[in-house]
Amino acid sequence: MNTVNSTNTVHPVQITRVDETQWQALSGDVVVGHADVSTRRHDLRYVSIDVWDDAAFAPLADAVRAALPAPLRTLLAADDPAPAARWERAGFVPERREWEYVLSTAAAVPSLAPGVTILPAGTADEARLRELDREIRAEVEAGPGWHTMPAEVRPCPPGDTLIDPSLYAVAVHRGRYAGLVRVVRGRGPARIGLLAVRAAHQRHGLGRSLLAHALHTLHEAGTTTAWAEVDQSRTAATTLFESFGAERTGQLLHLIHH
């Protein structure tokens, strides 16, 4: 257990590292805040800090930054500038923004483009699906980087990037596995967690066909709404979702400390 003292003109704050991923702020015998670190895809570390005394925020952020190697990230709702300003004072800078979308599943299924077939979730050959997943990830990593994709919070075994093969529908174009969509169902709206098409097969309507298939499948199963997060810089993706009537319900701000 590591302890750091920080003196404020009003409240002396003591920071204690409770375990490998948690810190606690104490003012006297009262807990006034805590920090937590979670690891997401590709070992990206995300920090969250909750305080009940504003004097505890900076010491908690300092303690986490001192204990863990950079880069560190955090994720905020972007509609309130005050939390972002506090993180920026702690040395974090904006990295990217995402739109949060909600859309109805009552979408008409368009006719497929020539040479395109959609394999429903759970029917694709697993070996070919895993190869497609690796190819798409390599293409994204070589460009903007996989960290710009919506966060994957479900754990995978080490070295395995496919969350659950049964969740993926696949677009076959000219005989090749060329695109995929992953949908996760819960008690409420379903989440469209990933929609991607290989670069060589883009501009052939695969993304539109995959999204329409996913929405239609959900509608047939009785799920009326779905939600998704889309990087605001990806104009083609935002245009695609909005063409299906997706409504912006909020935006997320990713910040990073290098």
Structure characterization notes:
The two termini are 26 Å apart. This protein is 24% helix and 40% strand. The relative contact order is 0.18. The longest helix has 17 residues, at 126-142. The chain is of the alpha+beta class and 258 residues long. It has helices at residues 57-67, 81-89, 126-142, 206-220, 235-243, and strands at residues 2-7, 12-19, 22-27, 30-40, 44-51, 72-77, 93-104, 116-119, 168-173, 176-184, 190-197, 225-231, 247-257. It folds into two domains: 2-69, no CATH class; 101-257, Aminopeptidase (3-Layer(aba) Sandwich). It has a 13-stranded mixed beta sheet with strand order 1-2-3-4-5-6-13-7-12-11-10-9-8, sandwiched between helices. InterPro entries: Acyl_CoA_acyltransferase (IPR016181), Bact_Acetyltransf (IPR050832), GNAT_dom (IPR000182). Keywords: Acyltransferase, Ribonucleoprotein, Ribosomal protein, Transferase. One of its GO terms (molecular function) is acyltransferase activity, transferring groups other than amino-acyl groups. This is Ribosomal protein S18 acetylase RimI-like enzyme. Residues 116-258 form the N-acetyltransferase domain.
